[in-house]
Each structure stands twice: as structure tokens, then as C-alpha cells.
Write a structure and sequence with these properties.
InterPro entries: DUF5753
Pfam family, one: DUF5753
Number of helices: 3
Organism: Streptosporangium brasiliense
Shape: globular
Domain DUF5753: 1-107
Distance between the termini: 24 Å
Number of strands: 5
Structural class: alpha+beta
Protein name: DUF5753 domain-containing protein
């Protein structure tokens, strides 16, 4: 999971809500199949919108869900999937290592208390 550094401090609700969201991120990061990394705020490829990459079981094709302000788009079109995967890798290059990311989340969580 890649998270834009800006969302850690972007107030959505009261401080209690923010703490709850950050607690949830820290809790989810403890799962063996989940990696949480904070992306440097100067990462421009991350500004093009949210997306998810789903690697499905039983040989099903990789499927992408890309968001826009108006709607989401789901596809397994090979060209679209490849372009989103390339964008994901470009964003990952801007991500802090997981241990540093989790420390950042913990520090910001303390700021909200």
C-alpha cells in the first residue's frame, strides 16, 4: 500500500478521526501480506489519481481499478494494466522504506493527540 505523505496531515474530521485512521494503518501494516509505504510529497506520478491493482487467483488476468472525480474504471485490458503497473513502479521509487514510513505514521499520529 502506497500512501501520499500529504494525507497524514490533511484533516478529515476531528483529531479523534485522524488518530483512528492512522491507528488503522498501523494495525493493517502488521499483517504479513501488507506493506505500508509513505510516498514523498514531491512525487508527481502519484498526482494522476488513485488506482488499485488486483492480482486475481486461478490464472485470471490482472485487473485495474482507476479512480477519477466522476467515476471509477475497471479493466483488464493489457495496455491499460501495463501503464498502471509502470506508474505504480514509478511511484514506488519515491516511497520511503516501510520501517521509516511506519515511524512517520507513528510521529504524525502523536501530533494528532
Amino acid at each position: 500500500m502506497l500512501i501520499d505523505a500529504g494525507v497524514l496531515r490533511r484533516k478529515v474530521g476531528e483529531a479523534e478521526v485522524m488518530c483512528g485512521q492512522l491507528d488503522h494503518l498501523l494495525e493493517v501494516s502488521e499483517r504479513p501480506s501488507v506493506s505500508v509505504q509513505v510516498v514523498d510529497p514531491e512525487c508527481l506520478p502519484g498526482l494522476a489519481g488513485a488506482f488499485m491493482i488486483a492480482e486475481l487467483p486461478n490464472g485470471q488476468p490482472i485487473t485495474i481499478h482507476a479512480d477519477s472525480p466522476a467515476q471509477g474504471h475497471v479493466t483488464n485490458d493489457c495496455e491499460f494494466v501495463a501503464s498502471i503497473q509502470e506508474r505504480y513502479e514509478a511511484i514506488r521509487l519515491w516511497a520511503y522504506p516501510e520501517r521509516i514510513s511506519l515511524k512517520m505514521i507513528e510521529e504524525v499520529r502523536r501530533e494528532w493527540t
